[in-house]
Amino acid sequence: MIVDAVSVVPEVFGPYMDASILGRARRAGVFEFRAHDLRRWTHDRHRTVDDAPFGGGPGMLMKPAPVFECVRELAGEGAAPRTVFFSPAGRTFTEDVARELAAEERLLFVCGRYEGMDERCYTLADDVLSLGDYVLTGGELACMAVTDAVVRLLPGALGDERSAQEESFSDGLLEYAQYTRPASFEGMDVPGVLLSGDHARVDAWRRRDALVRTARRRPDLLASAPITDEERAFLVESGLLSG
After folding, report:
1. Is residue 242 part of a domain?
2. 144-181 core/surface letters (b: 16 or more CB in 10 A; e: else)
3. What residue stretches are annotated with the tRNA methyltransferase TRMD/TRM10-type domain (predicted)?
Protein backbone atom coordinates (compact mmCIF):
# COMPACT_ATOMS: atom_id res chain seq x y z
CA MET A 1 0.00 0.00 0.00
CA ILE A 2 1.08 3.57 -0.69
CA VAL A 3 -0.03 6.32 1.69
CA ASP A 4 0.39 9.96 0.67
CA ALA A 5 -0.27 12.76 3.17
CA VAL A 6 -0.57 16.44 2.27
CA SER A 7 0.08 18.99 5.01
CA VAL A 8 1.50 22.46 5.67
CA VAL A 9 3.62 20.87 8.42
CA PRO A 10 4.80 17.61 6.81
CA GLU A 11 7.73 17.32 9.22
CA VAL A 12 5.41 16.19 12.03
CA PHE A 13 4.91 12.76 10.43
CA GLY A 14 8.53 11.56 10.46
CA PRO A 15 9.02 10.55 14.12
CA TYR A 16 5.79 8.58 14.33
CA MET A 17 6.03 6.89 10.95
CA ASP A 18 9.61 5.81 11.64
CA ALA A 19 8.92 4.28 15.06
CA SER A 20 7.60 1.00 16.43
CA ILE A 21 5.19 -1.08 14.33
CA LEU A 22 4.76 1.51 11.57
CA GLY A 23 8.50 1.95 11.24
CA ARG A 24 9.08 -1.79 11.01
CA ALA A 25 6.24 -2.17 8.51
CA ARG A 26 7.71 0.58 6.31
CA ARG A 27 11.16 -0.97 6.39
CA ALA A 28 9.66 -4.37 5.56
CA GLY A 29 7.87 -2.93 2.54
CA VAL A 30 4.36 -3.49 3.93
CA PHE A 31 3.47 0.09 3.07
CA GLU A 32 5.12 3.24 1.78
CA PHE A 33 4.45 6.61 3.40
CA ARG A 34 5.11 9.90 1.62
CA ALA A 35 4.53 13.33 3.18
CA HIS A 36 4.01 16.32 0.88
CA ASP A 37 4.26 20.02 1.74
CA LEU A 38 1.16 21.81 0.40
CA ARG A 39 3.22 25.00 -0.01
CA ARG A 40 4.95 23.31 -2.93
CA TRP A 41 1.82 24.06 -4.95
CA THR A 42 1.74 27.79 -4.20
CA HIS A 43 3.01 30.43 -6.63
CA ASP A 44 3.62 33.58 -4.59
CA ARG A 45 6.83 34.50 -2.81
CA HIS A 46 5.21 34.04 0.60
CA ARG A 47 3.96 30.53 -0.30
CA THR A 48 0.49 31.46 0.94
CA VAL A 49 -2.02 28.68 1.59
CA ASP A 50 -4.66 30.59 3.60
CA ASP A 51 -6.85 33.67 3.37
CA ALA A 52 -9.65 35.42 5.28
CA PRO A 53 -13.16 33.95 4.99
CA PHE A 54 -15.83 35.70 2.95
CA GLY A 55 -18.49 37.17 5.20
CA GLY A 56 -16.03 37.79 8.01
CA GLY A 57 -15.32 35.74 11.09
CA PRO A 58 -12.30 34.65 13.09
CA GLY A 59 -9.26 32.85 11.73
CA MET A 60 -8.16 31.95 8.25
CA LEU A 61 -9.25 29.32 5.72
CA MET A 62 -7.12 27.19 3.45
CA LYS A 63 -7.37 28.42 -0.12
CA PRO A 64 -8.76 26.08 -2.77
CA ALA A 65 -6.16 26.64 -5.51
CA PRO A 66 -3.14 24.93 -3.84
CA VAL A 67 -5.31 22.05 -2.64
CA PHE A 68 -6.84 21.43 -6.07
CA GLU A 69 -3.48 21.65 -7.82
CA CYS A 70 -1.82 19.36 -5.30
CA VAL A 71 -4.50 16.66 -5.24
CA ARG A 72 -4.84 16.60 -9.01
CA GLU A 73 -1.08 16.26 -9.51
CA LEU A 74 -0.60 13.56 -6.87
CA ALA A 75 -3.68 11.63 -7.98
CA GLY A 76 -2.28 11.51 -11.50
CA GLU A 77 0.92 9.83 -10.36
CA GLY A 78 0.62 6.05 -10.34
CA ALA A 79 -2.43 4.13 -9.16
CA ALA A 80 -5.52 6.25 -8.58
CA PRO A 81 -5.79 6.89 -4.81
CA ARG A 82 -8.76 6.98 -2.51
CA THR A 83 -8.65 10.63 -1.47
CA VAL A 84 -9.58 11.27 2.17
CA PHE A 85 -10.11 14.59 3.92
CA PHE A 86 -10.66 15.16 7.65
CA SER A 87 -13.43 17.25 9.19
CA PRO A 88 -15.64 17.23 12.31
CA ALA A 89 -18.48 16.98 9.78
CA GLY A 90 -17.14 13.74 8.31
CA ARG A 91 -18.33 10.21 9.03
CA THR A 92 -16.92 8.74 12.22
CA PHE A 93 -13.81 6.62 11.77
CA THR A 94 -14.30 3.07 13.04
CA GLU A 95 -12.63 -0.31 12.72
CA ASP A 96 -14.99 -1.13 9.86
CA VAL A 97 -13.83 1.99 8.02
CA ALA A 98 -10.23 0.98 8.72
CA ARG A 99 -10.93 -2.34 7.00
CA GLU A 100 -12.39 -0.50 4.00
CA LEU A 101 -9.26 1.61 3.67
CA ALA A 102 -6.96 -1.37 4.20
CA ALA A 103 -8.37 -2.90 1.02
CA GLU A 104 -7.17 0.06 -1.05
CA GLU A 105 -3.97 0.03 -3.10
CA ARG A 106 -3.27 3.70 -2.41
CA LEU A 107 -4.57 6.35 -0.01
CA LEU A 108 -4.20 10.12 -0.28
CA PHE A 109 -4.86 12.01 2.96
CA VAL A 110 -5.34 15.79 2.86
CA CYS A 111 -4.83 17.48 6.22
CA GLY A 112 -6.53 20.78 6.96
CA ARG A 113 -5.30 23.56 9.25
CA TYR A 114 -6.38 26.96 10.58
CA GLU A 115 -10.18 27.34 10.71
CA GLY A 116 -10.58 24.69 8.03
CA MET A 117 -10.76 24.56 4.25
CA ASP A 118 -12.68 26.38 1.60
CA GLU A 119 -15.78 24.21 1.19
CA ARG A 120 -15.04 23.67 -2.50
CA CYS A 121 -11.96 21.61 -1.59
CA TYR A 122 -14.18 18.80 -0.35
CA THR A 123 -15.42 18.15 -3.89
CA LEU A 124 -12.06 16.42 -4.40
CA ALA A 125 -12.71 13.93 -1.60
CA ASP A 126 -13.76 10.32 -1.99
CA ASP A 127 -14.30 10.26 1.75
CA VAL A 128 -14.38 12.72 4.67
CA LEU A 129 -13.59 11.28 8.09
CA SER A 130 -13.83 12.44 11.70
CA LEU A 131 -12.14 10.86 14.72
CA GLY A 132 -14.96 12.03 16.98
CA ASP A 133 -16.90 14.95 18.34
CA TYR A 134 -13.99 17.27 19.07
CA VAL A 135 -11.74 19.65 17.15
CA LEU A 136 -8.00 19.25 16.53
CA THR A 137 -5.53 21.94 15.52
CA GLY A 138 -4.99 20.16 12.23
CA GLY A 139 -5.66 16.96 10.35
CA GLU A 140 -2.18 15.53 10.89
CA LEU A 141 -3.02 13.74 14.13
CA ALA A 142 -6.14 12.28 12.54
CA CYS A 143 -4.08 11.18 9.55
CA MET A 144 -1.56 9.40 11.77
CA ALA A 145 -4.29 7.72 13.81
CA VAL A 146 -6.07 6.46 10.69
CA THR A 147 -2.82 5.32 9.07
CA ASP A 148 -1.87 3.42 12.22
CA ALA A 149 -5.25 1.67 12.40
CA VAL A 150 -5.14 0.77 8.69
CA VAL A 151 -1.54 -0.44 8.56
CA ARG A 152 -2.11 -2.80 11.51
CA LEU A 153 -4.60 -4.65 9.31
CA LEU A 154 -2.16 -5.17 6.43
CA PRO A 155 -0.57 -8.63 6.09
CA GLY A 156 2.90 -8.64 7.60
CA ALA A 157 2.48 -5.49 9.69
CA LEU A 158 2.16 -7.31 13.02
CA GLY A 159 4.39 -10.07 14.29
CA ASP A 160 1.38 -12.27 15.05
CA GLU A 161 -1.55 -11.94 12.64
CA ARG A 162 -3.91 -13.00 15.42
CA SER A 163 -3.24 -9.66 17.14
CA ALA A 164 -5.35 -7.74 14.64
CA GLN A 165 -8.06 -10.41 14.72
CA GLU A 166 -8.47 -10.44 18.51
CA GLU A 167 -8.27 -6.74 19.36
CA SER A 168 -11.12 -4.50 20.40
CA PHE A 169 -13.85 -3.99 17.78
CA SER A 170 -12.52 -6.81 15.57
CA ASP A 171 -15.65 -8.86 16.38
CA GLY A 172 -17.85 -5.97 17.45
CA LEU A 173 -16.87 -6.22 21.15
CA LEU A 174 -14.23 -4.65 23.34
CA GLU A 175 -11.19 -6.84 23.89
CA TYR A 176 -11.02 -9.05 27.00
CA ALA A 177 -8.74 -8.13 29.91
CA GLN A 178 -5.14 -9.28 29.62
CA TYR A 179 -2.44 -9.96 32.22
CA THR A 180 1.26 -10.79 32.42
CA ARG A 181 3.76 -11.69 35.17
CA PRO A 182 3.65 -11.59 38.15
CA ALA A 183 0.51 -13.60 38.80
CA SER A 184 -0.08 -11.59 41.99
CA PHE A 185 0.65 -7.89 42.29
CA GLU A 186 -0.22 -5.63 45.22
CA GLY A 187 -3.02 -7.94 46.27
CA MET A 188 -4.47 -8.25 42.77
CA ASP A 189 -4.43 -11.77 41.32
CA VAL A 190 -4.64 -12.93 37.74
CA PRO A 191 -7.82 -14.99 37.14
CA GLY A 192 -6.93 -18.60 37.83
CA VAL A 193 -8.33 -19.87 34.55
CA LEU A 194 -5.59 -18.02 32.67
CA LEU A 195 -2.98 -20.04 34.58
CA SER A 196 -4.69 -23.37 33.96
CA GLY A 197 -3.17 -24.20 30.58
CA ASP A 198 -6.64 -25.27 29.41
CA HIS A 199 -7.02 -23.41 26.12
CA ALA A 200 -10.72 -24.14 25.76
CA ARG A 201 -11.45 -22.72 29.22
CA VAL A 202 -9.24 -19.71 28.51
CA ASP A 203 -11.07 -19.00 25.24
CA ALA A 204 -14.44 -19.28 26.97
CA TRP A 205 -13.33 -16.94 29.78
CA ARG A 206 -12.01 -14.38 27.29
CA ARG A 207 -15.23 -14.38 25.31
CA ARG A 208 -17.34 -13.92 28.43
CA ASP A 209 -15.03 -11.19 29.75
CA ALA A 210 -15.28 -9.36 26.42
CA LEU A 211 -19.06 -9.51 26.68
CA VAL A 212 -19.07 -8.18 30.24
CA ARG A 213 -16.58 -5.37 29.52
CA THR A 214 -18.55 -4.30 26.47
CA ALA A 215 -21.85 -4.34 28.34
CA ARG A 216 -20.38 -2.22 31.14
CA ARG A 217 -18.29 0.23 29.12
CA ARG A 218 -19.79 0.39 25.63
CA PRO A 219 -23.31 -1.09 25.77
CA ASP A 220 -24.10 0.66 22.48
CA LEU A 221 -21.89 -1.87 20.68
CA LEU A 222 -24.05 -4.80 21.70
CA ALA A 223 -26.85 -3.73 19.36
CA SER A 224 -24.79 -4.77 16.33
CA ALA A 225 -22.31 -7.24 17.83
CA PRO A 226 -22.68 -10.87 16.69
CA ILE A 227 -23.63 -12.48 20.01
CA THR A 228 -25.52 -15.72 20.49
CA ASP A 229 -28.87 -16.16 22.21
CA GLU A 230 -27.04 -17.91 25.07
CA GLU A 231 -24.66 -14.97 25.46
CA ARG A 232 -27.53 -12.50 25.40
CA ALA A 233 -29.34 -14.52 28.07
CA PHE A 234 -26.18 -14.49 30.19
CA LEU A 235 -25.98 -10.68 29.99
CA VAL A 236 -29.67 -10.34 30.86
CA GLU A 237 -29.33 -12.69 33.84
CA SER A 238 -26.27 -10.75 34.99
CA GLY A 239 -28.23 -7.49 34.89
CA LEU A 240 -25.95 -6.09 32.20
CA LEU A 241 -28.57 -6.05 29.46
CA SER A 242 -32.28 -5.44 29.53
CA GLY A 243 -34.43 -8.36 28.49
Report:
1. no
2. bbbbbbbbbbeeebbeeeeebeeebbebbbbbbeeeee
3. 1-222
- Cα angle at 96 between 94 and 99, to 5 degrees? 115
Give CA torsion, residues 120, 123, 128, 134, to 10 deg: 10
Q: Would you say 122 is a known binding-site residue?
A: no
Segments forming the whole domain that contains residue 19: 2-151
Q: Is 131 annotated as a binding residue?
A: yes
Query: Beta strands 184-185 and 106-110: pairing type?
Result: unpaired
Ligand-binding annotation for 136, yes or no, is: yes
CA distance 6 to 40: 10
- Determine the Cα–Cα distance for residues 241 and 229; give it in Å rounded to an integer: 12
Beta bridge partners of 77: none
144 shares its domain with 25 = yes
Per-residue pLDDT of the chain (243 residues; tens, 9 = 90+): 999 999 999 999 999 999 999 999 999 999 999 999 999 999 999 999 999 999 999 999 999 999 999 999 999 999 999 999 999 999 999 999 999 999 999 999 999 999 999 999 999 999 999 999 999 999 999 999 999 999 999 999 997 666 666 666 768 899 999 999 999 999 999 999 999 999 999 999 999 999 999 999 999 999 999 999 999 999 999 999 997
Number of domains the chain is built from: 2
**CB-count burial class (<10 Å; 0-12, 13-18, 19+) for 54:** exposed
Residues 6+ positions from 93 with CB-CB distance below 8 Å = 129, 130, 131, 142, 145, 146, 149
Are the beta carbons of 205 and 213 closer than 8 angstroms? no
For residues 51 and 132, membership in a common domain is answered with: yes
